[in-house]
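User: Modeling request: complex.
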Amino acid sequence: MSKTGIKVFAPATVANMACGYDLMGFALERPGDEIIGRLVDNKPGVHITNIYGDKGKLSKETMQNTAGVAAQKFLDHIGDPSIGIEMEIYKKMPFGSGMGSSAASAAAGVMLANELLKRPLRKQELMPFAVAGEQVADGAYHADNVAPSLLGGIVFIRDNETLDFHRVSAPPGLYATLVHPHIRILTKDSRDILSDTVTLKQTITQNGNLGGLIIGLYKGDFDLIKRSLQDVIIEPQRAQLIPGFYDVKVAALQENVLGCSISGAGPSVFALSNNNLNAENAGHAMQRAFAKHKIESTVYISKINSEGAILY
Amino acid sequence: MSKTGIKVFAPATVANMACGYDLMGFALERPGDEIIGRLVDNKPGVHITNIYGDKGKLSKETMQNTAGVAAQKFLDHIGDPSIGIEMEIYKKMPFGSGMGSSAASAAAGVMLANELLKRPLRKQELMPFAVAGEQVADGAYHADNVAPSLLGGIVFIRDNETLDFHRVSAPPGLYATLVHPHIRILTKDSRDILSDTVTLKQTITQNGNLGGLIIGLYKGDFDLIKRSLQDVIIEPQRAQLIPGFYDVKVAALQENVLGCSISGAGPSVFALSNNNLNAENAGHAMQRAFAKHKIESTVYISKINSEGAILY
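Assistant: Request completed. Predicted assembly structure:
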Protein backbone atom coordinates (compact mmCIF):
# COMPACT_ATOMS: atom_id res chain seq x y z
CA MET A 1 0.00 0.00 0.00
CA SER A 2 1.05 3.57 -0.60
CA LYS A 3 2.85 5.39 2.17
CA THR A 4 2.42 8.78 0.54
CA GLY A 5 0.88 11.27 2.94
CA ILE A 6 -2.18 13.30 2.10
CA LYS A 7 -3.51 16.38 3.82
CA VAL A 8 -7.11 17.33 4.55
CA PHE A 9 -8.65 20.50 5.87
CA ALA A 10 -11.95 20.92 7.73
CA PRO A 11 -13.26 24.39 8.59
CA ALA A 12 -14.48 26.15 11.69
CA THR A 13 -18.24 26.44 11.98
CA VAL A 14 -20.89 28.56 13.64
CA ALA A 15 -23.66 26.49 15.21
CA ASN A 16 -27.16 27.67 16.22
CA MET A 17 -27.24 30.73 13.93
CA ALA A 18 -29.28 32.68 16.51
CA CYS A 19 -32.71 31.09 16.07
CA GLY A 20 -31.64 27.54 15.14
CA TYR A 21 -30.41 26.13 18.46
CA ASP A 22 -29.04 22.60 17.97
CA LEU A 23 -30.41 22.53 14.41
CA MET A 24 -28.42 24.81 12.18
CA GLY A 25 -24.88 25.83 11.41
CA PHE A 26 -22.61 27.18 8.70
CA ALA A 27 -18.97 26.80 7.74
CA LEU A 28 -16.27 29.47 7.50
CA GLU A 29 -13.50 29.45 4.92
CA ARG A 30 -10.81 29.90 7.60
CA PRO A 31 -9.67 28.93 10.17
CA GLY A 32 -9.81 25.14 10.26
CA ASP A 33 -7.95 22.04 11.34
CA GLU A 34 -5.58 20.08 9.14
CA ILE A 35 -4.66 16.44 9.31
CA ILE A 36 -1.82 14.78 7.45
CA GLY A 37 -2.06 11.03 7.22
CA ARG A 38 -0.99 7.88 5.39
CA LEU A 39 -1.74 4.20 5.10
CA VAL A 40 0.69 2.00 7.03
CA ASP A 41 1.43 -1.71 6.78
CA ASN A 42 1.34 -4.17 9.66
CA LYS A 43 -0.21 -1.69 12.07
CA PRO A 44 -4.01 -2.06 11.85
CA GLY A 45 -6.33 0.67 13.09
CA VAL A 46 -5.96 4.42 13.50
CA HIS A 47 -2.86 5.84 15.14
CA ILE A 48 -2.33 9.46 16.09
CA THR A 49 1.40 10.07 15.97
CA ASN A 50 1.38 13.76 16.82
CA ILE A 51 -0.86 16.69 17.62
CA TYR A 52 0.39 20.23 17.05
CA GLY A 53 -1.15 23.46 18.26
CA ASP A 54 -3.11 22.01 21.17
CA LYS A 55 -0.60 22.90 23.91
CA GLY A 56 -0.62 19.26 24.94
CA LYS A 57 -4.27 19.29 25.92
CA LEU A 58 -5.67 16.68 23.54
CA SER A 59 -5.29 12.93 23.88
CA LYS A 60 -3.35 10.93 21.31
CA GLU A 61 -5.33 7.85 22.32
CA THR A 62 -7.38 7.06 19.23
CA MET A 63 -10.66 6.46 21.06
CA GLN A 64 -10.30 9.61 23.17
CA ASN A 65 -9.69 11.92 20.24
CA THR A 66 -12.48 13.20 17.99
CA ALA A 67 -10.45 12.71 14.79
CA GLY A 68 -9.29 9.27 15.96
CA VAL A 69 -12.77 8.04 16.80
CA ALA A 70 -14.27 9.36 13.54
CA ALA A 71 -11.59 7.64 11.45
CA GLN A 72 -11.67 4.41 13.48
CA LYS A 73 -15.48 4.11 13.30
CA PHE A 74 -15.22 4.58 9.56
CA LEU A 75 -12.58 1.80 9.36
CA ASP A 76 -14.81 -0.45 11.48
CA HIS A 77 -17.62 0.15 8.98
CA ILE A 78 -15.37 -0.65 6.02
CA GLY A 79 -14.57 -3.87 7.80
CA ASP A 80 -11.05 -4.69 6.60
CA PRO A 81 -9.11 -5.37 9.81
CA SER A 82 -5.75 -5.13 8.06
CA ILE A 83 -5.96 -1.43 7.23
CA GLY A 84 -3.72 0.86 9.24
CA ILE A 85 -3.74 4.68 9.23
CA GLU A 86 -1.31 7.07 10.85
CA MET A 87 -2.21 10.72 11.27
CA GLU A 88 -0.78 13.98 12.58
CA ILE A 89 -3.30 16.57 13.66
CA TYR A 90 -2.64 20.29 13.24
CA LYS A 91 -5.05 22.23 15.46
CA LYS A 92 -5.31 25.65 13.88
CA MET A 93 -8.12 27.01 15.98
CA PRO A 94 -8.77 27.32 19.69
CA PHE A 95 -10.94 24.78 21.43
CA GLY A 96 -13.67 25.60 23.90
CA SER A 97 -14.22 28.62 21.68
CA GLY A 98 -17.64 27.94 20.15
CA MET A 99 -16.05 27.66 16.72
CA GLY A 100 -16.59 23.93 16.30
CA SER A 101 -12.98 22.94 16.92
CA SER A 102 -13.69 19.34 17.92
CA ALA A 103 -16.19 18.97 15.08
CA ALA A 104 -13.61 20.16 12.54
CA SER A 105 -11.11 17.57 13.77
CA ALA A 106 -13.75 14.83 13.59
CA ALA A 107 -14.74 15.87 10.06
CA ALA A 108 -11.09 16.00 8.99
CA GLY A 109 -10.37 12.61 10.56
CA VAL A 110 -13.05 10.72 8.68
CA MET A 111 -12.40 12.70 5.49
CA LEU A 112 -8.75 11.66 5.65
CA ALA A 113 -9.60 7.98 6.11
CA ASN A 114 -12.11 8.02 3.24
CA GLU A 115 -9.63 9.74 0.91
CA LEU A 116 -6.81 7.33 1.84
CA LEU A 117 -9.09 4.43 0.87
CA LYS A 118 -10.01 6.12 -2.46
CA ARG A 119 -13.46 7.25 -1.36
CA PRO A 120 -15.51 4.12 -0.72
CA LEU A 121 -18.22 6.40 0.70
CA ARG A 122 -19.72 9.66 -0.48
CA LYS A 123 -19.14 12.70 1.68
CA GLN A 124 -22.61 12.82 3.19
CA GLU A 125 -22.29 9.13 4.09
CA LEU A 126 -19.38 10.07 6.38
CA MET A 127 -21.71 12.02 8.66
CA PRO A 128 -22.45 9.32 11.26
CA PHE A 129 -18.73 8.68 11.82
CA ALA A 130 -17.91 12.36 12.13
CA VAL A 131 -20.79 12.93 14.56
CA ALA A 132 -19.72 9.92 16.64
CA GLY A 133 -16.22 11.41 16.69
CA GLU A 134 -17.37 14.78 17.94
CA GLN A 135 -19.47 13.07 20.60
CA VAL A 136 -16.21 12.17 22.39
CA ALA A 137 -15.62 15.85 23.06
CA ASP A 138 -18.88 16.88 24.68
CA GLY A 139 -21.03 13.78 25.00
CA ALA A 140 -23.91 15.07 22.89
CA TYR A 141 -24.83 13.48 19.56
CA HIS A 142 -25.54 16.50 17.45
CA ALA A 143 -24.52 17.58 14.01
CA ASP A 144 -24.90 21.34 13.92
CA ASN A 145 -21.10 21.83 13.79
CA VAL A 146 -20.04 18.57 12.15
CA ALA A 147 -22.46 18.81 9.23
CA PRO A 148 -21.32 22.21 7.93
CA SER A 149 -17.65 21.42 8.64
CA LEU A 150 -17.86 18.25 6.57
CA LEU A 151 -20.34 19.31 3.87
CA GLY A 152 -19.87 23.07 3.73
CA GLY A 153 -22.55 25.69 3.35
CA ILE A 154 -25.45 26.26 5.67
CA VAL A 155 -26.91 23.05 7.01
CA PHE A 156 -30.22 22.50 8.74
CA ILE A 157 -30.60 19.34 10.82
CA ARG A 158 -34.28 18.43 11.23
CA ASP A 159 -33.41 15.67 13.67
CA ASN A 160 -30.02 14.99 15.20
CA GLU A 161 -30.79 11.44 16.27
CA THR A 162 -31.48 10.23 12.73
CA LEU A 163 -29.10 12.75 11.13
CA ASP A 164 -31.85 14.15 8.93
CA PHE A 165 -29.76 16.99 7.51
CA HIS A 166 -30.34 19.38 4.60
CA ARG A 167 -28.24 21.98 2.86
CA VAL A 168 -29.89 25.38 2.68
CA SER A 169 -28.86 27.87 0.00
CA ALA A 170 -26.58 30.69 1.06
CA PRO A 171 -27.33 33.82 -0.96
CA PRO A 172 -24.32 35.36 -2.74
CA GLY A 173 -22.84 38.16 -0.71
CA LEU A 174 -23.47 36.59 2.68
CA TYR A 175 -20.43 37.18 4.89
CA ALA A 176 -19.65 36.07 8.40
CA THR A 177 -17.74 37.85 11.13
CA LEU A 178 -16.48 35.66 13.95
CA VAL A 179 -14.86 37.22 17.00
CA HIS A 180 -13.16 34.91 19.46
CA PRO A 181 -12.61 36.54 22.85
CA HIS A 182 -9.66 35.02 24.69
CA ILE A 183 -11.68 33.61 27.52
CA ARG A 184 -12.84 30.07 27.96
CA ILE A 185 -16.25 28.67 28.81
CA LEU A 186 -17.00 24.97 28.90
CA THR A 187 -19.69 23.60 26.61
CA LYS A 188 -21.00 21.71 29.60
CA ASP A 189 -21.42 24.91 31.66
CA SER A 190 -22.97 26.57 28.66
CA ARG A 191 -25.52 23.73 28.44
CA ASP A 192 -26.11 23.46 32.19
CA ILE A 193 -27.08 27.11 32.45
CA LEU A 194 -30.06 26.62 30.13
CA SER A 195 -33.53 26.29 31.61
CA ASP A 196 -35.34 23.06 30.74
CA THR A 197 -38.51 24.98 29.96
CA VAL A 198 -39.48 27.90 27.76
CA THR A 199 -42.76 29.71 27.37
CA LEU A 200 -45.13 28.85 24.54
CA LYS A 201 -44.87 32.47 23.43
CA GLN A 202 -41.07 32.22 23.18
CA THR A 203 -41.42 29.01 21.22
CA ILE A 204 -43.75 30.65 18.72
CA THR A 205 -41.42 33.63 18.33
CA GLN A 206 -38.40 31.36 17.85
CA ASN A 207 -40.32 29.19 15.37
CA GLY A 208 -41.30 32.29 13.44
CA ASN A 209 -37.72 33.49 13.25
CA LEU A 210 -36.36 30.09 12.25
CA GLY A 211 -38.92 29.75 9.47
CA GLY A 212 -38.22 33.32 8.41
CA LEU A 213 -34.47 32.65 8.31
CA ILE A 214 -34.87 29.57 6.11
CA ILE A 215 -37.29 31.34 3.75
CA GLY A 216 -35.02 34.39 3.68
CA LEU A 217 -32.02 32.23 2.77
CA TYR A 218 -33.97 30.48 -0.01
CA LYS A 219 -35.27 33.75 -1.42
CA GLY A 220 -32.04 35.69 -0.89
CA ASP A 221 -34.16 38.22 1.02
CA PHE A 222 -31.63 39.98 3.26
CA ASP A 223 -34.29 42.09 4.97
CA LEU A 224 -36.15 38.96 6.00
CA ILE A 225 -32.91 37.31 7.15
CA LYS A 226 -32.21 40.42 9.23
CA ARG A 227 -35.63 40.37 10.90
CA SER A 228 -35.24 36.64 11.58
CA LEU A 229 -31.73 36.52 13.09
CA GLN A 230 -32.95 36.78 16.65
CA ASP A 231 -32.71 34.31 19.50
CA VAL A 232 -35.24 34.86 22.27
CA ILE A 233 -34.49 31.60 24.09
CA ILE A 234 -30.80 30.70 24.32
CA GLU A 235 -28.90 33.98 23.93
CA PRO A 236 -30.60 35.74 26.86
CA GLN A 237 -29.52 32.88 29.14
CA ARG A 238 -25.96 32.49 27.87
CA ALA A 239 -25.08 36.16 27.42
CA GLN A 240 -24.07 36.39 31.10
CA LEU A 241 -21.20 33.95 30.45
CA ILE A 242 -19.58 36.38 27.99
CA PRO A 243 -18.42 39.64 29.62
CA GLY A 244 -19.50 42.59 27.50
CA PHE A 245 -21.67 40.51 25.17
CA TYR A 246 -24.37 43.13 24.70
CA ASP A 247 -21.81 45.89 24.05
CA VAL A 248 -20.28 43.67 21.37
CA LYS A 249 -23.69 42.97 19.86
CA VAL A 250 -24.65 46.63 19.78
CA ALA A 251 -21.29 47.46 18.17
CA ALA A 252 -22.00 44.92 15.44
CA LEU A 253 -25.56 46.11 14.84
CA GLN A 254 -24.31 49.68 14.47
CA GLU A 255 -22.25 48.47 11.52
CA ASN A 256 -25.39 47.31 9.72
CA VAL A 257 -24.91 43.59 10.11
CA LEU A 258 -27.94 41.38 9.49
CA GLY A 259 -27.71 39.93 12.97
CA CYS A 260 -25.32 39.07 15.77
CA SER A 261 -25.44 36.32 18.37
CA ILE A 262 -23.38 33.71 20.21
CA SER A 263 -21.49 31.20 18.08
CA GLY A 264 -22.32 27.69 19.27
CA ALA A 265 -21.89 27.41 23.02
CA GLY A 266 -19.72 30.55 23.01
CA PRO A 267 -17.73 32.53 23.97
CA SER A 268 -17.17 33.44 20.31
CA VAL A 269 -19.68 35.89 18.87
CA PHE A 270 -20.69 35.91 15.20
CA ALA A 271 -22.39 38.37 12.90
CA LEU A 272 -23.74 37.96 9.38
CA SER A 273 -23.58 40.69 6.77
CA ASN A 274 -24.68 41.11 3.19
CA ASN A 275 -21.23 42.20 2.04
CA ASN A 276 -17.59 41.92 3.10
CA LEU A 277 -17.18 45.58 4.08
CA ASN A 278 -19.93 45.47 6.68
CA ALA A 279 -18.45 42.19 7.91
CA GLU A 280 -14.99 43.75 8.30
CA ASN A 281 -16.30 46.92 9.92
CA ALA A 282 -18.31 44.83 12.35
CA GLY A 283 -15.21 42.80 13.20
CA HIS A 284 -13.26 45.91 14.15
CA ALA A 285 -16.17 47.32 16.15
CA MET A 286 -16.77 44.05 17.99
CA GLN A 287 -13.08 43.70 18.83
CA ARG A 288 -13.00 47.25 20.21
CA ALA A 289 -16.07 46.50 22.31
CA PHE A 290 -14.39 43.45 23.84
CA ALA A 291 -11.24 45.52 24.42
CA LYS A 292 -13.24 47.98 26.52
CA HIS A 293 -13.95 45.04 28.79
CA LYS A 294 -10.20 44.24 28.89
CA ILE A 295 -10.68 41.17 26.74
CA GLU A 296 -8.38 40.44 23.82
CA SER A 297 -9.94 38.81 20.81
CA THR A 298 -9.23 37.42 17.37
CA VAL A 299 -11.39 38.38 14.38
CA TYR A 300 -12.14 36.18 11.38
CA ILE A 301 -13.97 37.43 8.28
CA SER A 302 -15.20 34.87 5.80
CA LYS A 303 -17.66 34.09 3.07
CA ILE A 304 -19.87 31.11 3.74
CA ASN A 305 -17.64 28.13 2.91
CA SER A 306 -19.39 26.11 0.23
CA GLU A 307 -17.06 23.09 0.22
CA GLY A 308 -16.56 21.94 3.80
CA ALA A 309 -13.81 19.41 4.37
CA ILE A 310 -11.40 19.14 1.44
CA LEU A 311 -8.32 17.32 0.25
CA TYR A 312 -5.76 20.02 0.53
CA MET B 1 -72.03 55.13 -9.00
CA SER B 2 -72.77 51.69 -10.27
CA LYS B 3 -75.32 49.63 -8.40
CA THR B 4 -74.36 46.40 -10.12
CA GLY B 5 -73.63 43.68 -7.63
CA ILE B 6 -70.42 41.68 -7.66
CA LYS B 7 -69.64 38.41 -5.94
CA VAL B 8 -66.44 37.35 -4.21
CA PHE B 9 -65.36 34.01 -2.80
CA ALA B 10 -62.82 33.34 -0.03
CA PRO B 11 -61.81 29.79 0.82
CA ALA B 12 -61.61 27.68 3.95
CA THR B 13 -58.13 27.30 5.41
CA VAL B 14 -56.13 24.97 7.58
CA ALA B 15 -54.05 26.81 10.18
CA ASN B 16 -51.05 25.49 12.12
CA MET B 17 -50.19 22.68 9.68
CA ALA B 18 -49.04 20.43 12.55
CA CYS B 19 -45.69 22.00 13.41
CA GLY B 20 -46.46 25.64 12.58
CA TYR B 21 -48.71 26.72 15.43
CA ASP B 22 -49.92 30.31 14.93
CA LEU B 23 -47.47 30.74 12.03
CA MET B 24 -48.60 28.74 9.05
CA GLY B 25 -51.68 27.85 7.06
CA PHE B 26 -52.92 26.84 3.65
CA ALA B 27 -56.08 27.40 1.61
CA LEU B 28 -58.51 24.82 0.22
CA GLU B 29 -60.31 25.16 -3.10
CA ARG B 30 -63.70 24.46 -1.49
CA PRO B 31 -65.62 25.16 0.67
CA GLY B 32 -65.58 28.90 1.20
CA ASP B 33 -67.75 31.90 1.94
CA GLU B 34 -69.33 34.14 -0.67
CA ILE B 35 -70.31 37.75 -0.41
CA ILE B 36 -72.42 39.66 -2.90
CA GLY B 37 -72.20 43.40 -2.64
CA ARG B 38 -72.67 46.71 -4.38
CA LEU B 39 -71.94 50.39 -4.01
CA VAL B 40 -74.87 52.42 -2.75
CA ASP B 41 -75.58 56.15 -2.80
CA ASN B 42 -76.49 58.29 0.18
CA LYS B 43 -75.75 55.53 2.67
CA PRO B 44 -72.10 55.86 3.73
CA GLY B 45 -70.25 53.00 5.35
CA VAL B 46 -70.64 49.24 5.21
CA HIS B 47 -74.09 47.70 5.62
CA ILE B 48 -74.83 44.00 5.96
CA THR B 49 -78.30 43.46 4.59
CA ASN B 50 -78.50 39.71 5.00
CA ILE B 51 -76.59 36.68 6.17
CA TYR B 52 -77.50 33.26 4.83
CA GLY B 53 -76.39 29.88 6.11
CA ASP B 54 -75.49 30.99 9.65
CA LYS B 55 -78.72 29.83 11.31
CA GLY B 56 -79.10 33.34 12.68
CA LYS B 57 -75.96 33.15 14.77
CA LEU B 58 -73.93 35.98 13.25
CA SER B 59 -74.46 39.68 13.85
CA LYS B 60 -75.51 41.96 11.02
CA GLU B 61 -74.03 44.89 12.97
CA THR B 62 -71.10 45.96 10.79
CA MET B 63 -68.61 46.31 13.64
CA GLN B 64 -69.56 42.97 15.17
CA ASN B 65 -69.16 41.00 11.97
CA THR B 66 -65.77 39.92 10.60
CA ALA B 67 -66.66 40.79 7.00
CA GLY B 68 -68.19 44.09 8.07
CA VAL B 69 -65.19 45.16 10.13
CA ALA B 70 -62.71 44.17 7.40
CA ALA B 71 -64.61 46.16 4.76
CA GLN B 72 -65.24 49.15 7.04
CA LYS B 73 -61.57 49.39 8.13
CA PHE B 74 -60.61 49.33 4.47
CA LEU B 75 -63.07 52.16 3.74
CA ASP B 76 -61.69 54.14 6.68
CA HIS B 77 -58.21 53.74 5.17
CA ILE B 78 -59.41 54.91 1.74
CA GLY B 79 -60.81 57.94 3.50
CA ASP B 80 -63.77 58.94 1.33
CA PRO B 81 -66.66 59.31 3.81
CA SER B 82 -69.28 59.33 1.05
CA ILE B 83 -68.73 55.71 -0.06
CA GLY B 84 -71.45 53.26 0.87
CA ILE B 85 -71.36 49.46 0.48
CA GLU B 86 -74.16 46.95 0.95
CA MET B 87 -73.36 43.26 1.25
CA GLU B 88 -75.07 39.92 1.68
CA ILE B 89 -73.01 37.18 3.23
CA TYR B 90 -73.42 33.54 2.22
CA LYS B 91 -71.82 31.34 4.89
CA LYS B 92 -71.01 28.11 3.11
CA MET B 93 -69.00 26.47 5.84
CA PRO B 94 -69.57 25.77 9.50
CA PHE B 95 -68.14 28.08 12.11
CA GLY B 96 -66.33 26.93 15.22
CA SER B 97 -65.05 24.17 12.99
CA GLY B 98 -61.32 24.96 12.73
CA MET B 99 -61.73 25.64 9.01
CA GLY B 100 -61.15 29.37 9.20
CA SER B 101 -64.77 30.35 8.71
CA SER B 102 -64.49 33.79 10.28
CA ALA B 103 -61.21 34.44 8.44
CA ALA B 104 -62.81 33.58 5.10
CA SER B 105 -65.63 36.06 5.71
CA ALA B 106 -63.12 38.73 6.69
CA ALA B 107 -61.03 38.07 3.59
CA ALA B 108 -64.13 38.12 1.38
CA GLY B 109 -65.37 41.34 3.00
CA VAL B 110 -62.26 43.36 2.29
CA MET B 111 -61.81 41.76 -1.12
CA LEU B 112 -65.35 42.82 -2.05
CA ALA B 113 -64.75 46.40 -0.95
CA ASN B 114 -61.46 46.65 -2.85
CA GLU B 115 -63.02 45.21 -6.00
CA LEU B 116 -66.02 47.56 -5.79
CA LEU B 117 -63.63 50.50 -5.64
CA LYS B 118 -61.65 49.17 -8.66
CA ARG B 119 -58.69 47.85 -6.64
CA PRO B 120 -57.05 50.88 -5.05
CA LEU B 121 -54.89 48.42 -3.07
CA ARG B 122 -53.02 45.27 -4.06
CA LYS B 123 -54.23 42.04 -2.54
CA GLN B 124 -51.42 41.70 -0.01
CA GLU B 125 -52.08 45.28 1.12
CA LEU B 126 -55.54 44.15 2.22
CA MET B 127 -54.05 41.92 4.92
CA PRO B 128 -54.23 44.32 7.90
CA PHE B 129 -57.94 44.97 7.30
CA ALA B 130 -58.75 41.28 6.94
CA VAL B 131 -56.80 40.41 10.10
CA ALA B 132 -58.54 43.20 12.01
CA GLY B 133 -61.83 41.77 10.77
CA GLU B 134 -61.09 38.27 11.97
CA GLN B 135 -60.00 39.64 15.33
CA VAL B 136 -63.66 40.41 16.05
CA ALA B 137 -64.37 36.68 16.10
CA ASP B 138 -61.79 35.43 18.56
CA GLY B 139 -59.91 38.43 19.89
CA ALA B 140 -56.50 37.33 18.71
CA TYR B 141 -54.58 39.27 16.06
CA HIS B 142 -53.17 36.48 13.96
CA ALA B 143 -53.02 35.80 10.28
CA ASP B 144 -52.57 32.05 9.89
CA ASN B 145 -56.11 31.66 8.51
CA VAL B 146 -56.64 35.09 6.97
CA ALA B 147 -53.41 35.13 4.99
CA PRO B 148 -53.99 31.89 3.03
CA SER B 149 -57.72 32.66 2.60
CA LEU B 150 -56.90 36.04 1.07
CA LEU B 151 -53.68 35.25 -0.79
CA GLY B 152 -54.00 31.52 -1.48
CA GLY B 153 -51.29 28.90 -1.26
CA ILE B 154 -49.27 28.05 1.81
CA VAL B 155 -48.40 31.08 3.89
CA PHE B 156 -45.83 31.37 6.64
CA ILE B 157 -46.20 34.28 9.05
CA ARG B 158 -42.88 35.08 10.72
CA ASP B 159 -44.52 37.56 13.04
CA ASN B 160 -48.24 38.13 13.46
CA GLU B 161 -47.92 41.53 15.10
CA THR B 162 -46.14 43.11 12.12
CA LEU B 163 -47.83 40.82 9.57
CA ASP B 164 -44.50 39.62 8.23
CA PHE B 165 -45.96 36.98 5.91
CA HIS B 166 -44.43 34.93 3.12
CA ARG B 167 -45.83 32.56 0.52
CA VAL B 168 -44.13 29.16 0.53
CA SER B 169 -44.20 27.01 -2.60
CA ALA B 170 -46.66 24.12 -2.64
CA PRO B 171 -45.24 21.21 -4.63
CA PRO B 172 -47.49 19.92 -7.44
CA GLY B 173 -49.50 16.94 -6.30
CA LEU B 174 -50.01 18.13 -2.74
CA TYR B 175 -53.61 17.36 -1.72
CA ALA B 176 -55.49 18.09 1.46
CA THR B 177 -58.16 16.07 3.21
CA LEU B 178 -60.28 17.96 5.68
CA VAL B 179 -62.76 16.13 7.88
CA HIS B 180 -65.20 18.18 9.90
CA PRO B 181 -66.80 16.21 12.75
CA HIS B 182 -70.19 17.58 13.68
CA ILE B 183 -69.22 18.63 17.14
CA ARG B 184 -68.33 22.09 18.31
CA ILE B 185 -65.41 23.32 20.37
CA LEU B 186 -64.78 26.97 21.10
CA THR B 187 -61.53 28.52 19.95
CA LYS B 188 -61.29 30.07 23.39
CA ASP B 189 -61.48 26.66 25.11
CA SER B 190 -59.03 25.31 22.61
CA ARG B 191 -56.59 28.08 23.53
CA ASP B 192 -57.24 27.97 27.27
CA ILE B 193 -56.35 24.28 27.43
CA LEU B 194 -52.79 24.96 26.27
CA SER B 195 -49.99 25.06 28.80
CA ASP B 196 -48.07 28.35 28.95
CA THR B 197 -44.78 26.47 29.01
CA VAL B 198 -43.10 23.79 26.94
CA THR B 199 -39.83 21.96 27.44
CA LEU B 200 -36.68 23.08 25.64
CA LYS B 201 -36.51 19.61 24.11
CA GLN B 202 -40.04 19.95 22.67
CA THR B 203 -39.14 23.36 21.29
CA ILE B 204 -36.09 21.95 19.51
CA THR B 205 -38.13 19.07 18.07
CA GLN B 206 -40.87 21.44 16.89
CA ASN B 207 -38.29 23.84 15.43
CA GLY B 208 -36.69 20.94 13.59
CA ASN B 209 -39.99 19.84 12.11
CA LEU B 210 -41.01 23.35 11.11
CA GLY B 211 -37.70 23.94 9.35
CA GLY B 212 -37.97 20.50 7.75
CA LEU B 213 -41.49 21.25 6.51
CA ILE B 214 -40.46 24.54 4.91
CA ILE B 215 -37.38 23.01 3.28
CA GLY B 216 -39.45 20.01 2.15
CA LEU B 217 -42.03 22.31 0.55
CA TYR B 218 -39.33 24.33 -1.24
CA LYS B 219 -37.59 21.20 -2.50
CA GLY B 220 -40.78 19.27 -3.25
CA ASP B 221 -39.34 16.52 -1.04
CA PHE B 222 -42.42 14.57 0.06
CA ASP B 223 -40.41 12.24 2.30
CA LEU B 224 -39.05 15.20 4.22
CA ILE B 225 -42.52 16.77 4.42
CA LYS B 226 -43.79 13.48 5.81
CA ARG B 227 -41.10 13.29 8.49
CA SER B 228 -41.75 16.91 9.40
CA LEU B 229 -45.56 16.95 9.70
CA GLN B 230 -45.56 16.29 13.42
CA ASP B 231 -46.74 18.42 16.29
CA VAL B 232 -45.22 17.53 19.66
CA ILE B 233 -46.57 20.59 21.47
CA ILE B 234 -50.16 21.53 20.60
CA GLU B 235 -51.77 18.34 19.27
CA PRO B 236 -51.08 16.24 22.39
CA GLN B 237 -52.88 18.86 24.49
CA ARG B 238 -55.84 19.44 22.19
CA ALA B 239 -56.47 15.86 21.10
CA GLN B 240 -58.62 15.28 24.21
CA LEU B 241 -61.14 17.83 22.92
CA ILE B 242 -61.84 15.70 19.85
CA PRO B 243 -63.42 12.31 20.63
CA GLY B 244 -61.67 9.57 18.66
CA PHE B 245 -58.89 11.85 17.40
CA TYR B 246 -56.14 9.24 17.56
CA ASP B 247 -58.30 6.64 15.81
CA VAL B 248 -58.93 9.15 13.05
CA LYS B 249 -55.23 9.95 12.81
CA VAL B 250 -54.23 6.30 12.64
CA ALA B 251 -56.88 5.71 9.96
CA ALA B 252 -55.38 8.51 7.88
CA LEU B 253 -51.79 7.34 8.34
CA GLN B 254 -52.78 3.85 7.21
CA GLU B 255 -53.81 5.41 3.89
CA ASN B 256 -50.28 6.69 3.32
CA VAL B 257 -50.94 10.34 3.94
CA LEU B 258 -47.92 12.55 4.57
CA GLY B 259 -49.26 13.61 7.93
CA CYS B 260 -52.44 14.23 9.90
CA SER B 261 -53.22 16.68 12.67
CA ILE B 262 -55.80 19.10 14.02
CA SER B 263 -56.95 21.87 11.68
CA GLY B 264 -56.60 25.21 13.43
CA ALA B 265 -58.22 25.08 16.86
CA GLY B 266 -60.24 21.99 15.83
CA PRO B 267 -62.38 19.98 15.86
CA SER B 268 -61.70 19.48 12.14
CA VAL B 269 -58.82 17.16 11.33
CA PHE B 270 -56.70 17.51 8.21
CA ALA B 271 -54.29 15.30 6.34
CA LEU B 272 -51.89 16.06 3.51
CA SER B 273 -51.16 13.60 0.69
CA ASN B 274 -48.95 13.57 -2.37
CA ASN B 275 -51.85 12.67 -4.68
CA ASN B 276 -55.62 12.89 -4.83
CA LEU B 277 -56.27 9.15 -4.42
CA ASN B 278 -54.51 8.95 -1.08
CA ALA B 279 -56.36 12.10 -0.05
CA GLU B 280 -59.72 10.55 -0.97
CA ASN B 281 -58.96 7.22 0.66
CA ALA B 282 -57.87 8.99 3.80
CA GLY B 283 -61.11 10.98 3.80
CA HIS B 284 -63.20 7.81 3.76
CA ALA B 285 -61.09 6.14 6.43
CA MET B 286 -61.17 9.19 8.70
CA GLN B 287 -64.93 9.52 8.34
CA ARG B 288 -65.39 5.84 9.23
CA ALA B 289 -63.18 6.30 12.28
CA PHE B 290 -65.30 9.20 13.51
CA ALA B 291 -68.44 7.13 12.81
CA LYS B 292 -67.16 4.43 15.16
CA HIS B 293 -67.28 7.10 17.84
CA LYS B 294 -70.89 7.94 16.80
CA ILE B 295 -69.78 11.23 15.26
CA GLU B 296 -71.04 12.29 11.86
CA SER B 297 -68.62 14.22 9.72
CA THR B 298 -68.20 15.98 6.40
CA VAL B 299 -65.20 15.31 4.17
CA TYR B 300 -63.54 17.81 1.84
CA ILE B 301 -60.81 16.86 -0.64
CA SER B 302 -58.88 19.65 -2.30
CA LYS B 303 -55.69 20.67 -3.99
CA ILE B 304 -53.87 23.53 -2.33
CA ASN B 305 -55.76 26.60 -3.52
CA SER B 306 -53.29 28.87 -5.26
CA GLU B 307 -55.54 31.91 -5.69
CA GLY B 308 -57.18 32.68 -2.36
CA ALA B 309 -60.01 35.18 -2.44
CA ILE B 310 -61.36 35.81 -5.94
CA LEU B 311 -63.91 37.80 -7.86
CA TYR B 312 -66.38 35.12 -8.73
